[in-house]
């Protein structure tokens, strides 16, 4: 873990006392701690916004528990100026700046205060990611509506790896240890919707739960309230295990059991980070996107065309569209907010597009 603290108010007579609060351990237990104290003088700038880190996507070891990532990128913004920082305009991109997206943070930061900002979900930012080395970039364009006074801390970048890609049909094969009452399991999609949840687990019970997941990003999180995972050598709770399996196939992933308080795995289903649109020979387009409910699909010729809409769980919606020769209209106003997939099939060709319902 990496932590940073402002300790100025604790200094007395030029000294500060630090208490780690460590209690005695048994067996071969030890703590390895490295400290650095940084002093600073008067503020150099009136207006100075800085990007000081990228939490995800990142290969940094201190961010290892939440990476590789496929949810919205997270950056750390700090106010290094004497004026209050209340807005930041920034661009972000993967590898190729010509594909940059723009985001706006608004808030209230005094000098030296910082915030972790979740950049807007935009899968198209990942289209420039490759199968090899990738770099995520962030650049501050404006602070409080104008150019700030110090440009050298406006740019940050992080190398990252793509998350693993799993099939739509998987199952969890697991057994908690003797302390199953300490554990819970949850899977969410890229909109934060819970698609699977397990608590009230039974000690040493072998479980097989089958899931059919929708296209896109998902996060699996296993919690342990006693911070000792499901297979910790230094207690008598016994050993559990957790595997992700492909239905009709083999093991996709075996999770480490000695994970402390939580184990987090981000993965995508069927596609990598972005959801590609397949070859479009019939001029298909969906609008408005995002939509408040009414969705129109257009094409050169929609005769003998099959249209389908799936929710984030991979379930097809039972909706009756309004048809014409060049348009198909759906009313999604009664559906939950989130991501949906439009699928068009004509003459054996398939076209898929992502649609957001607000």
Shape: flat
- How many discrete domains? 3
Put simply, the count of helices is: 0
Largest sheet: 5 strands, mixed
CATH architecture of the largest domain: Sandwich
Corresponding CATH superfamily of the largest domain: Immunoglobulins
Q: Order of strands in the sheet with the most strands?
A: 8-16-13-10-11
- In terms of DSSP E residues, the strand content is 35-45%
Helix coverage percent of residues? under 10%
Radius of gyration: 25 Å
Could you tell me the number of beta strands? Answer: 23
Please tell me about this protein's structure:
The chain has 3 domains: about 120 residues, Immunoglobulins (Immunoglobulin-like), CATH 2.60.40; about 100 residues, Lipoxygenase-1 (Sandwich); about 70 residues, Immunoglobulins (Immunoglobulin-like, Sandwich). A hairpin with a 6-residue loop joins strand 17 and strand 18. The chain has a 5-stranded mixed β-sheet with strand order 8-16-13-10-11, with no helix packed on it. The relative contact order is 0.12. It is mostly beta strands and about 350 residues long. It contains no helices and 23 strands.
